[in-house]
Fold these 3 entries.
Entry 1:
Amino acid sequence: MASGTNTLTAATLSASDAKRGRPGVAALTRMELGKLRKRPMTKVTFGLGILAAVGFMVLVLVAGTDGSREAFVFPNIVEDSFQLIQLMGNMTLPVIGAAIAGSEYGWGTMRLLLATGVGRGTLFAAKLLALLVVDLLFVLMMAVLICVEAACSGWLGGYEQDLSVIDGAWVADAVQLFATTAGLLFFLVIVAFGVAMLGRSMAAGIAVGIGLPIAQQIAAVIAPAVFGRLGELMVDFFPNTSFQALAMRAGFDPAPAEGLLSPERAIATLVGYSVLILGVAALVFWRRDVPSGD
């Protein structure tokens, strides 16, 4: 089904190419979003997000204490909701990042699409932009759903929902939480996408994208024990260390900065890794022996 959809898209692009020249990034991004919308794993990803949000509410209402039920109201729940979003996104979004690249090679549709004359750089950028849109939509969907559930739960339970705390500073903190969560999840999507592009394998992208945070936690324990001070320096450059530095500073009651990397260094580390991964993946994709119009 998905392969047939990609074949039809390639044929359509071929006809369009003859009339108007190569499609641009915007057209290809819409095409990639259309393919993602029809793929079962995209529906599963968003479905799991909805189930997690609903399950969280049911767990609090059924098995929670009076204190936890009272805390599960809007706007109190906003900060905790992004922790759940981060957890679910870590396990699901890398799958989409790997699929948008690796499955094209597995089905053989990457060759067909490039043979229509689509530019490799344009296609690479379009896939990345489509992933960014999916990442933002996933975080927004789960955040809105959990907040609506919390508002309904507070209203039905008769708990006080203090909306007076919502002011300009509150909104700025909420936007920072959203941006931080979406950005950290997008880094894992980039890892999965880059590995899938390099290895032409969806399975490799999924394994590295989902397994990277777990592997870093293990390495963060072993490295200092084996290498001493050098191991501690190595851990400072782990993406997880930058994740913690940014996540713990985001929110309405951020953690003290002691022992954390500076935000500038954390962002620079993650951006550096992202540029390296995408740069190598783009270079390999550009030079790979797949027929195209380049």
Note: The chain is about 80% helix and 0% strand.
Entry 2:
Amino acid sequence: MHSTTFGIPLLRPALLFAVSLACSTAQAQVIDFSSSRGAGISQSDVMMENIRIRVPVPNPFDPGSSTTVENSYNVRFRFDPTTLHLVPIGIDQTDPQQACASATVSVFDAVRGAAAPIANASVTLGNQTLQTNAQGQVSFSGLPASTFTINAAASDYVPASQAIALSCDTPASTAIALSPSNPNQGGLGAGQFRIILTWGQDPADLDSHLTGPGTTADSRFHVFYANKTNGGVCGLDVDDVTSFGPETVTCPSTGSTGTLRPGVYRYSVHHYSGLTNIGASGASVRLEFANGQQYRFTPPALSNYLGRNDVWTVFELTVNSNGAVSMAPVDSVMNNVGSGQVRSGDKGAVELAAPQFGRAEDMSLMRGLSK
């Protein structure tokens, strides 16, 4: 979901319903947005942080008087296209007395990977803003258990954000990768797009796979760790095998003067090795364009994750002959897919004539590959 803006008329009906869950007996409560922050955290969800609710509580020992109690909430909303409302799907009270969560955030150069940490980046998490050290890391503590948005910015880089879930049981660790802002330093130029994958400690190795139109009508290229520039259009800038990422794909390749080939480009994430699964990995995929437009994706909330050899097909891009690009989410998960099986079964000529959105990759592409 690209950066989201919304007005109070759209938000208020859903918010009033959400806070009533926590303030059902209160009267004349005041909803204060003056220090709230809102951001899109996935294809369909919005997070509003630090919504303050002030509630007058009658004093039983002094009839007619009351004491105002203030609480803060993080509220997650999902857009309902039928009613045009943001519908609350989760609410967390961010009680400072229960500030028991901690997190470590690493900030990397999206093109150069973990070998190029970004020092002195400004990272905001909750109500704290800190600067990264020489290793590109920053540690937060004293945060409430809730879902927050991480916002990262650094000189000469494009700012970015992504969601993180904090718990008091286990310290969180994640990474966020920033694209250079200057095309001469690896930044995006006109007609380019970039896909950036980051995740948490586990699994150790998630891989990016991008397929797209080949040089003939019935062929498709496949860019991944074993063939980083297959097809001569896109390139895998960095492959990470030790947790966190980033894994970055740029089309046309970083530093290239080429152009996009018309057709359907399909991006998938493959669980190559390591514990847990894609759904529990904290994975975040960010699609960036040179004009500043961004889309953010998180794994679907499904119960069919098995672990190693799961494939999450994230989205498709269709490039028309005039260079216009359109995006459609796929958001499907397949199991027991080897790394040689991620491939589209579509034929290029069919795609160019009438692209069919929503197709998962052909399982045959990821079979039999190893590192």
Note: Residues 1-14, 16-26, 344-357 have pLDDT under 50 and may be disordered.
Entry 3:
Amino acid sequence: MSGYILKETFPSFQNNYTVNKDMQGTPAYFSDGGNDAFDSWGYFQITNAEVTVVTNLPFTQRNGPDGTIYTEEFQHDGETWELKQGWVVPGIFAMQVLQITGEDKPFKFKLSGNYGSDSSSQYGRVTTQYGEVYLTTFWNNDGGKDAAGGDPQVTWTVVPYDPGLTATDVPPATSSRSGDNETGTTVAMTHGCLVFIQWGYTTVQAVQDFIIQSFERDNIIKYLVVDGTEVKRWDEGLSHYISVGQAPPTKAMFLEHGMKTIPASRTGLIMTNPVLHCWTDDLSGRARFLIEKVVPKPKLLKMVTDYILPTGAKSVEVVANTAGSAILKLILSIDGGVTWKAWNSSQWLAVNTESLTEVESMGMTKETINGITETAWDAIISPGGTIRFGIFRSQTATADTCEVDSIRVNFK
């Protein structure tokens, strides 16, 4: 099932008020919010459907700058969940709660606490239809809906991950009130939800107009690797691939064990040609591509043909480009590739090409080979002789550049 998640970017929003970011405690709550918006309100938790398992949402990092979204994982009801939270724009705090392992387990989101409006509390809810989505927003202040004076108007809105729970005008949450005390609880949901909390001097309509532009439909994309006869996934705790069943992979395997991302490591894979499988519920027919960037192993490339030098060699010009941590070295052979040599600024030395370590340490840089004198060339190459080159390349990062554009031998 695909559902609703936060977008990467958010529209502008005019809150007409600067909030006091004072989240604290466990369960996390807003202490005052500024101008007596709260007298401790929030206490954010999720529970199982029967409310017998209760988990405090973690909020290890909190009260960050506007536009900063914090992400962390936590355990609830035997599975791993992910919380994204932060002030997406000035005046609006958003949360995204998603179950990321195992079969979907029904859960409820819960908030509670006390508003600063005390005995003057006025409150209600507004449900607005935006195409196929109904948004229900709860509001509270001490002067009536959208009042511009007094305590800031507080609003909260829950958007379930499941589109079916926003397809009708039945609210996905309820608010139980006793004066300025409130307990808000959602219906049982699956996979996750979004929560938007705002306080300031604007309208409920403006808040809902912002929210409807702040989330989008997610499509499930899961990956598994077939390694010979076994289906495998990456295990973060063990830092290697583990088997989850026998090939071929099934939908159930993808939903229970599928990976959201593909690790760079192949540790735990046995075959040299494992096959990556992808499953998605996206029926749009869009083509999907995987671009794999790898760092090549150090390698020595040897020419298989010779340059013939009828009058001997005067100089060699190498044009090459290296960047980052890349290493480029050159060696040469004057006997058809039987033996190899390198110049060390004073003499020619034999190089053992069976040892890449020796090639790397003894091989010539482009500056060295470009600086070899005619006299030094005469010491190993006679008129009518031959020459071929070996090129050693090493990179440690995909951003490294290691390229040879040309090798030119100038005759006498």
Note: The chain has a mean pLDDT of 93.
